């Protein structure tokens, strides 16, 4: 099919006024974003339930990965502009990207090291190392191609296709959100399936394998269209020039720090000895915007936790919406859905209404409100967490333990524990709870009993033995020889039960009445719908902060410095994720709701600081300033030329005067 499209499109250069090559780029972007967001959607649950990391460790590694994904674009931009060019950079790093995705899929196959075939890997180090290598390659790949694909698509348009170029970037943005939306719906469903060669476990390998396949498709599609692309040669990276100019200015200023040297109006003016004045003026405009970026990482600190802390929060909630059962990692789909809804509403309704009310809702004020909305989102998350904590069991501390007492006999038993009142245990009953596992079947019969469900066969349960398995709603079938019976029960999400099979069990239609059930942990009772308000506020904050921030940055930067601001913007995202890492590892706040309140308070404080900085900011028109600067430079050049011309004329007059005086002296000497 791909080759058919290639031969069809290769015969024509344009389709509906658009370059044919951009269709391959759009498909490539959709598949790549599906691959990235699909893998990322289930990543924190993979850390917690497959690699057996605690919440803090899973959160820390998750945000370290996201931070790397936003640091590597700077490297990708430098390589593309200074060395390989955009096309080769996309190809080479996409190969690295695909290898990383495949590595992640392989790392999630539990059967590779499951030597005893109990469903748990026996060499967890192998899976951890493999997954870390995969994540590093993915971060290098996705970050490296991030600044190249959109710019490469823009290069395909000619000067007379400006309208088509704008439409392309709109479609490009829709592909990003479309890929994100579909992947965050599909990959959690794949993860929830059971798969395996020797034992059935949650299928993280499939959840990572499908994104890996989509990345391979993205690479193939991009390569197929290679003959149709316009491939601009690398012309040097403006970021390198900016860094060199700033470095020279700092070095030169330090060299002339003595009071004997006159002060400059701006510290960047110390670079005038080596660099062009126009470049220095452009860097000054960029530095004004970058100064405003200083408080911005705190917004991303909160925003990116929707893929870590909020997903972990959803694991303790009830996702049953009636006809639809939502997985914890599927709640992230609320974000792209709301983005596609709120962006047009904000642009066509909210902002115009605010303008009609006579309020000057400037971009920096929008960003300030976006920060406030994100802080409100975390207050909502804290309130939800408080409700969840009310339903959680009381876990033992490091100095405590829990005891489960089972009466396996046919008569009541009285138990006396030191420091406790006497306990009376009826026959075939369970007292207290052990909370380490989700389901237990205790066989009190004198014969071996097999237990199975439609999803799995638990095998034989011998006398006084137990078997544990994670389930939600199932019908259990018990059989011994030719005798069997079925046990039906509704199980709530997050619950834990112990099933006691007494020695008096009689197989038949009434056998279910003989089985004793102890509810060790109550099911999740806080509904997942309570997370919708926090997703709404964080998404509304994203629209007002992120979209407006990029628009503001581009409007305040010179045309050749937009890449520098893009790198600076991505750098704030990386720093924000590192802040989460620091808090998760160092703060060690025992209550999760308190951590949410801490983050909300920090963002509120940063919001106040940012609003003060924004108040004193003066908006500029870089295009007009550049034009005026170039005009003044030209006038200075003309003045220099006129001065040089006047100097030349004076010298000629002097020379003529000297010559005339010389001739008069010769005449006098002749007369003498």
UniProtKB/TrEMBL annotation:
Q: Give the stretches traversing the membrane.
A: 57-78, 90-112, 124-145, 166-186, 206-230, 285-303, 337-355, 367-386, 563-584, 596-617
Which is a GO BP term held by this UniProt record?
A: oligopeptide transport
Query: Where, subcellularly, is it found?
Result: Membrane
Predominant localisation class: membrane
Q: Name one GO molecular function term.
A: symporter activity
Q: What keywords would UniProt list here?
A: Membrane, Peptide transport, Protein transport, Symport, Transmembrane, Transmembrane helix, Transport
Look up and give the membrane topology term.
Multi-pass membrane protein
Q: Which InterPro entries match?
A: MFS_trans_sf (IPR036259), POT_fam (IPR000109), PTR2_symporter_CS (IPR018456)
List the GO cellular component terms. membrane
State the family named in the UniProt similarity comment for this chain.
Belongs to the major facilitator superfamily. Proton-dependent oligopeptide transporter (POT/PTR) (TC 2.A.17) family.
The molecule here is called Solute carrier family 15 member 1a
Organism for this UniProt entry: Scophthalmus maximus (Turbot)
